[in-house]
Amino acid sequence: MTVATECYSCARNADFDRLPPRERIAADGLWRVAHAFDSALPGWLVLLPRRHVTSIAALTDTEASSLGIWQVRLSRALHKVTGCQKTYVAQFAEADGFAHVHFHIVSRPAGLASELRGPRIFFHLLGPNDRPHIGEQQMDEIAMELSKELQA
């Protein structure tokens, strides 16, 4: 098996031109932006390298220097498109099939309950839980709005 078939992110990167809007909000030669699946929050984004990388220390200097710019641009676009009060940024890359470095850029709405803020957001609003998740159509709509904002 190749890295592309073992790694979810690499498989998606290899199929870039056929990805739905939610999987290719924005991209350059180094990074791709997608809406997170299994999220209960609209605008929960994932920023991931276009090449297979399993640790932040393995990023090239060029990737590292553009990382902060991407995170700030995405945060600004999320503020405009979703009206979020702030964004959270986190990186783990430890789950089976998801060891590819990826940064969560989380759109935190103003009215989010205090018990869901900070790191608790990951335990209650991402992955399997009893809250309704954002559907593919809504993710695609947000993706298209974000894409336009990022191109402006």
Protein model, in words:
- The model has no long low-confidence stretch (mean pLDDT 93).
- The protein has one domain (3-151): 2-Layer Sandwich (HIT family, subunit A), CATH 3.30.428.
- It has helices at 3-6, 8-14, 61-82, 120-125, 136-151; strands at 26-27, 31-35, 45-49, 86-91, 103-108.
- It is of the alpha+beta class and 152 residues long.
- It contains five helices and five strands, in the order H-H-E-E-E-H-E-E-H-H.
- It starts with a helix and ends with a helix.
- Strands 1-2-3-5-4 form a five-stranded antiparallel β-sheet.
- Helix 3 crosses helix 5 (136-151).
Concise overview:
This protein has 5 helices and 5 strands, in the order ααβββαββαα.
Give keywords.
alpha+beta, 152 residues, five-stranded antiparallel sheet, globular, 16% strand, single chain, HIT family, subunit A, 5 strands
Span between termini? 41 Å
From the spread of the alpha carbons, the general shape counts as: globular
Q: How many strands appear in the DSSP assignment?
A: 5
Number of domains: 1
How is the largest sheet built, in terms of strand order? 1-2-3-5-4
**Uncertain spans, ≥5 residues at pLDDT below 50?**
none
CATH level 3 topology = HIT family, subunit A
Give the count of helical stretches.
5
The radius of gyration computed from the alpha-carbon positions, rounded to a whole number of angstroms, is: 15 Å
Helix content: 25-40%
The proportion of residues in beta strands is: 15-25%
Largest sheet: 5 strands, antiparallel
CATH superfamily: HIT-like
Structural class of the secondary structure composition?
alpha+beta
Q: Architecture, CATH level 2?
A: 2-Layer Sandwich
- Overall mean pLDDT: 93
Class in CATH? Answer: Alpha Beta
Write the element-wise H/E pattern from the N-terminal end onward: HHEEEHEEHH
